[in-house]
Design brief:
about 350 residues, alpha/beta, Rossmann fold, six-stranded parallel sheet, about 20% strand, globular
Length: about 350
């Protein structure tokens, strides 16, 4: 994918070095209404509304209009400063404007740092479905820092942490056990968190490097997401969106249960994960009456085939199996177990 990953808490120095490397005629920052304050005072900034409900085609059109007005060319540089909504949509706008303008991602949320900003996926939501329109278009550089996290609500930290847990489930049992002892009420240790981020992001980067266009192994990164995206889309349809990482956390537990049912994934690991999610992520209010809608959304997932529901499952920590077909009865049984475990 050619992405240059930079882990530093000296963000502006890194940006200055990168922006001056190729003689760009114009640098434009894309930020949302909350992250625009982090851009330099003299910067050219396009500001968009925050929130996943604004990750739409109309917002993309606004970005193109502003880029046209500011005189962006193929020799310009775009800096996407924000969470996953900004890097997804800003990356799409940059990659499609003039058939491609170089862009740098500077994620300002934990979720953006470990998920959306890395790997080259860009796009927007469409017809109530997550990331239905998009393309693989990697940022030339991703600057990952913890300097923006001090002001994040604990909900945002928990949302990003779910993806960190997912990467540990795919790679490292010892790291996973350490993460499941995390205390969200403790002050942020920036050095330790930056080290954890480097470990987590490298898991994703290594998989993406081996399979940049998701033809095989990269589907491992879908762990927790077939079910999680269904929860997320159902919440959008209800008009009460939930944080992406919360949906992923519920999806990880559900798919861990499926892994136990189908691949003998250890029950003690299911319980450890389930207890952590129960204690740290508020439950999603759904009942068995929602099962048909959830199953339909899972069948519509981009990675499903021929109307079947496919998931990435685990035989053990770090032993992942892609393209696992699961039957609706298995899914509903796993959803029953999730509801029981979360006390719904």
């Amino acid at each position: 994918m050619g992405q240059n990953l930079i882990f530093t808490n000296h963000v502006q120095e890194a940006i200055n070095r990168l922006a001056g490397s190729d003689g760009h005629n114009l640098t434009v920052w894309i930020a949302d209404v909350n992250t625009a304050r982090y851009a330099p005072a003299e910067a050219h900034v396009i500001t968009i509304p925050d929130g996943d409900e604004n990750k739409t085609l109309s917002t993309a059109c606004h970005l193109w209009d502003e880029m046209e007005r500011m005189g962006v060319t193929r020799h310009s540089l775009i800096i996407n400063l924000g969470g996953g909504m900004v890097t997804d949509l800003g990356g799409w706008a940059a990659a499609t404007f003039k058939r491609g303008v170089r862009f740098i991602n500077v994620p300002t949320t934990l979720l953006g740092a470990v998920d959306a900003a890395v790997g080259g996926k860009t796009g927007f939501n469409y017809n109530g479905l997550k990331n239905e329109i998009g393309a693989f278009a990697p940022a030339s550089d991703v600057i990952i820092s913890t300097r923006y996290f001090d002001t994040l609500p604990v909900q945002e930290m928990k949302s990003g942490f779910a993806e960190v847990i997912k990467h540990a489930m795919l790679s490292d049992r010892e790291e996973l056990l350490r993460l499941l002892d995390h205390d969200f009420n403790a002050p942020i240790d920036h050095d330790d968190l930056l080290e954890r981020l480097q470990h987590s992001v490298q898991v994703k980067a290594d998989i993406v490097a081996r399979d940049p266009n998701e033809q095989g192994e990269r589907k491992a990164l879908n762990l927790g997401h077939t079910v999680g995206h269904a929860f997320e889309s159902l919440a959008i349809h209800r008009g009460h969106p939930v944080p992406h990482g919360y949906a992923v956390a519920w999806g990880l537990v559900t798919e861990a249960v499926l892994s136990h049912m189908l691949l003998k994934f250890p029950s003690e690991d299911v319980h450890r994960l389930g207890n952590f999610v129960r204690d740290n992520y508020r439950y999603f209010p759904f009942t068995c009456d929602d099962y048909d809608d959830l199953l339909a959304l899972m069948r519509h997932d981009k990675k499903s085939r021929d109307g079947e529901i496919t998931c990435t499952l685990l035989a053990a920590i770090a032993d992942y199996r892609i393209d696992q077909t699961v039957l609706p009865d298995n899914v509903t049984a796993a959803l029953d177990i999730l509801r029981d475990h979360l006390g719904m």
